[in-house]
Every structure is written in structure tokens, then in C-alpha cells.
Amino acid sequence: MSTNPEPDEMSLDELRAEIESIDREIVELIARRTYVAETIADVKAERGLPTTDESQANGYSYLYKIEIEVSSRLTLRCTIRRLGSAVGPALP
């Protein structure tokens, strides 16, 4: 038996907390991925290798698009929160 309640059994506050927890995990994973990608770029520069690898370009471009989309959504969400707190109470 699971000790975690199902989403339909959670309160609105619990659901919002769960979303925030997931968002933190996503941001951490994106940060880790970015760090590894930057490390790869550094290694390639040190070894005089080309910065793109055509054999992997399609997969990376797809992940990069996802990363940009998630990053944009998180930035928008934070901006909306900041604007909301500046003008009044948060919307439900």
C-alpha cells in the first residue's frame, strides 16, 4: 500500500506543493544537463574538436527545444508570481 495520497485525494495546497517539488526537480535536472553540456563543450575546445556532432544533433536539438520550453515556462511562471504579489493576492 502506498503512503503517498493519490492526486485526487490531495488538497489544493498539497497539489501546489507537489507541483513546486516537481518544478524544483526539473530545474535541477536541467541545471545538471547544462553543466554536462558545458563540460562537453570545454573538452571539445581543449581537444580542437568540432562543437557539433551530426550523429547526435537531432537528439540534442529535440532535448534543447524541451529545455528552452521548460525554462521559458518556469520563467513566465516566476514572473507572473512576482507581478501578482506586487499587485495583490495570488489567484487560485
In short:
The protein has helices spanning 12-47, 54-87. It is mainly α. The protein has one domain: Chorismate Mutase Domain, subunit A.
Descriptive overview:
The two termini are 32 Å apart. With 92 residues, this protein is mostly helical. It is built from 2 helices and no strands. The relative contact order is 0.07. The chain has one domain: Chorismate Mutase Domain, subunit A, CATH 1.20.59.
Supply the key terms.
single chain; mainly alpha; Chorismate Mutase Domain, subunit A; 2 helices; 0% strand
Q: Helix and strand succession?
A: HH
Q: Segments where pLDDT lies below 50 for 5+ residues?
A: none
Largest sheet: none
Helix/strand class? mainly alpha
Question: What is the share of helical residues?
Answer: over 70%
Q: Which quaternary structure do these chains form?
A: single chain
CATH topology: Chorismate Mutase Domain, subunit A
Task: State the end-to-end distance.
Answer: 32 Å
Provide the number of structural domains. Answer: 1
What Rg, in angstroms, do the CA atoms define?
19 Å
Range of strand content: under 5%
CATH class: Mainly Alpha
Average of per-residue pLDDT values: 79
CATH architecture term: Up-down Bundle
Shape estimate: elongated
Tally of individual helices: 2
Instruction: Tell me the total number of β-strands.
Output: 0
Describe the protein's topology.
Layout: H1 12-47, H2 54-87
Helix pairs in contact: 1-2
